[in-house]
Amino acid sequence: MYPLLMFSFFLILTSFSNAAQLDPLQQIEKTTFESPEKGYSFDYPEDWQKVDIKGFDIVLKSPENQEGQSFANLSVISGPLPPNVDLEVYTRENVTHLVLNNEFIHNFDNGTAEIGGVPSNWISYNRGDDLTKIVQYFFVKDKLAYLITEGAMTVSYNDYKETFDEIIKSFKFTN
């Protein structure tokens, strides 16, 4: 299993709570994250907070409510692929590991998309007692593997979906 998935999975599991949610439609202003060394950039809402976590290119969390709780986050991890590993192998190995090591995953779905002009595979699932919905995008460019993970409380996921979609659509390779 490639370590990119498990870091992101851990982050999602530790980032949510059950308090009242913010209105994500109020998030209008954007800022750009750029990773010159990894060769990509994307836009995200200016009021989302960057969180430094070792092993991640970037972790973003939605604005906190008055109790200091955040209800959605997005992370990007990238790294080199071993020889002879393509998008399909990368995705299959991560999904297999995820399913085998997490008995509380349900409502699993998958498909394909395009991110930054390259093909990607996505998976979505709910955790445990349905509190968390997670969507992950796997893609490969120039022997680097990328994993974008977005997640939110299940009851509020659709409130953040437009924001997540805008972030994904803005992803572009800069080299």
UniProtKB/TrEMBL annotation:
Give the residue range of the signal peptide.
1-19
Asked if Zinc is a keyword of the record, the answer is no
UniProt keyword Signal present: yes
Keywords, ordered alphabetically: Signal
What is an example of a Pfam family matching this protein? PsbP_2
Instruction: State what protein this is by name.
Output: Secreted protein
The organism's lineage is: Bacteria, Pseudomonadati, Chlamydiota, Chlamydiia, Parachlamydiales
